[in-house]
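Field log, afternoon session.

UNIT: design team B
ACTIVITY: writing a sequence onto a fixed backbone
BACKBONE:
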């Protein structure tokens, strides 16, 4: 640190920017796909918990409680050390970085769906019950009423919370280092190790995460203000 300068740091970053961009690509890929799958599966779980027969609702509730009660890093380790290798051995699949990326996306999607389900369930409950009754009175089925009437209103109410959870998800992608994936954080760590600048590169990674997450948090605050003034 004593003999290290900003010029040296910028030089290291410029020499390795391709590797850094590849790492950020991995982080963003996991984030975006896990958000999409997590929200879709979260909607299904929320609907099952609110409108399905009790045995099915209990199963959905058990799923949500299970994944909300264990650390994400443990779920990643399940897929990396147990589920993934078992499936790969059964189908004769090699343990490549692409396969590990798929397992990471699956783990994140299943885990985040439990949190999105709670957000979506709260969004559904924020819509007045009379809306469902009115839709059913117009001849809609319950599924049609949920899709055309309840869901659009609920999504509008929960966009800030969904974005907040997306920010947390992006931050958590740094945990994929345990699966030997070169995400953005691991890329900075490798570059720092190779250039005897680990602390500097870790600080750089923290700065990049801060800029991205702070920008998204500002967007969330703006949306919340607009919602309150609407």
């Amino acid at each position: 640190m004593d003999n290290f300068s900003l010029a040296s740091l910028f030089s290291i970053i410029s020499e390795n920017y391709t590797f850094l961009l590849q790492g950020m690509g991995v982080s963003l890929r996991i984030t975006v796909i896990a958000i999409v799958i997590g929200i879709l599966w979260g909607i299904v779980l929320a609907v099952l918990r609110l409108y399905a027969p009790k045995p099915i609702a209990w199963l959905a509730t058990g799923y949500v409680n299970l994944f909300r009660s264990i650390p994400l890093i443990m779920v990643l380790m399940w897929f990396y050390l147990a589920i993934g290798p078992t499936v790969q051995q059964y189908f004769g699949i090699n343990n490549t970085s692409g396969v590990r990326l798929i397992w990471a996306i699956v783990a994140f999607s299943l885990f985040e769906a439990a949190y999105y389900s709670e957000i979506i369930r709260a969004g559904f409950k924020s819509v007045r019950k009379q809306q469902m009754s009115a839709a059913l009175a117009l001849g809609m089925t319950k599924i049609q009423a949920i899709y055309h009437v309840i869901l659009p209103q609920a999504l509008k109410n929960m966009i800030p919370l969904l974005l907040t959870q997306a920010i947390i998800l992006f931050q958590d992608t740094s945990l994929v280092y345990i699966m030997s994936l070169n995400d953005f954080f691991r890329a900075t760590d490798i570059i720092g190790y190779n250039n005897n600048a680990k602390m500097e590169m870790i600080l750089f990674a923290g700065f990049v995460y801060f800029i991205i997450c702070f920008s998204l948090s500002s967007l969330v605050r703006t949306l919340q203000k607009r919602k309150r003034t609407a």
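LOG NOTE: Residues 17-51 form the longest helix (35 residues).
NEXT ACTIVITY: expression trials, pending approval
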